[in-house]
Amino acid sequence: MEAQQVMTFGQEGLLMLLTVAAPVLLVVLVVGLIVSIFQAATQIHEATLSFVPKLVAAVAVLAVAGPWMLSMLVDYLRRVLQTIPSVVG
User: Is 2 left (phi over 0), alpha (psi -120 to 50) or beta?
Assistant: First the structure.
């Protein structure tokens, strides 16, 4: 196995990680920003007020985008497993 192949596998893996994690992270970031603005405007600083909306948003995004995320991961894993014989042999 050459160094270039290892770097390619690593690069594809990191790109897949970012692609799959981005929807959840972006939605939770936006919800957190909105809750923070609400807390600053109302002077309410309750810990659960910032945690619960983020949790609900993350679950909602996983419910909506979960099948897409799973299919992306399965396709990536299938490609990696199919290239193993050509890399080893």
Answer: beta
